Amino acid sequence: MTTKFILGMRDAFFDVLYEIFKKDKSAVLISADNGAPSLDKFWTDLPDQSFTVGIAEQQLIGMACGMAFEGRKVYTYAIAPFVTLRCYEQVKLDMCAMNLPIVNIGIGAGYAYDIMGPTHHTTEDISIMRALPNLVIHSPADATAAAALARIAHETASPQYIRFDRTGIPDVYAGRNVRFEDGVIVTKQGRDLYIVATGVMVHEALKAAKNLEALGINAGVLDLCRLKPINEELLLSHLQDVGRAVTLEEHRLPGGMGSAIAEIFVDGGLHTPLLRIGQGDRFIYDLGGRETIWELYGLDAASVTDKIVRWMGNK
After folding, report:
1. What is the residue range of 226's domain?
2. Contact yes or no for 251/123 (Cβ under 8 A)
3. What is the pTM of this model?
4. Is the peptide bond before 140 cis (omega within 30 degrees of 0)?
5. Structural domain count, the chain
6. pLDDT tens sequence across 152-209
7. 138 with 14, same domain?
């Protein structure tokens, strides 16, 4: 029995980016001691456009900003917590305040580096990164979205942050005609409620929606693939016709995606009942893998289904 190969988000993105680099000689990639099979051809074929600074993320951003000032389109690549928190001041002042066309690529969103603990978990990046002016934040759910994002990111002139999952995730958009540049995707139509999810949680939302269907609840799924700026008009156009909304994220609740949507509801005077599901305000030290963490802290499809059913019963 052969195992079906699933192309990861990162590799799908870099495969398309490689073709872009061959045409755009102003584009450069800088890595902070992180490699990938899809990056080997950059080092081999495009040595004048590919650099590494070692484990020095603050230097990574400084070098990227210097090159951007000289007219280069710069992509940085590191593990997600290190390309956000470790060099936050540099990203804030050197990159965002200067509004430079740099794309920060972070691998391992959420609990992708599950057994590595809080040093490698990335469950506060949405909160801190969406606070930065000028920054665009992307969060794809599969390899098809990531491949499309390579073009979108290259055509976007502002500072950007992309949060990729670490491993191969089944494709939900392969063969579908999807406008990822809209930032909000109707992954599954719904009538009673919509679950708004991002990244890997789009897959758990689809499972939960299927569970809810079996219970007589017609639940849809919206993929918020661009977390900043949120396409508020499109998002609300989908939510205005349902009675309830749920947000689901592999991220801490304070300041995360659910908070961003709650702000939109409050500022827009929308009275639709909203349930936020995500990680509580705690660090996670549990072992056993990512799915174990989900089960322990209520992020798996079964737990999400139960929370929604109980919430609806109380309304």
Report:
1. 183-313
2. yes
3. 0.95
4. no
5. 2
6. 999 999 999 999 998 778 999 999 999 999 999 999 999 999 999 999 999 999 999 9
7. yes
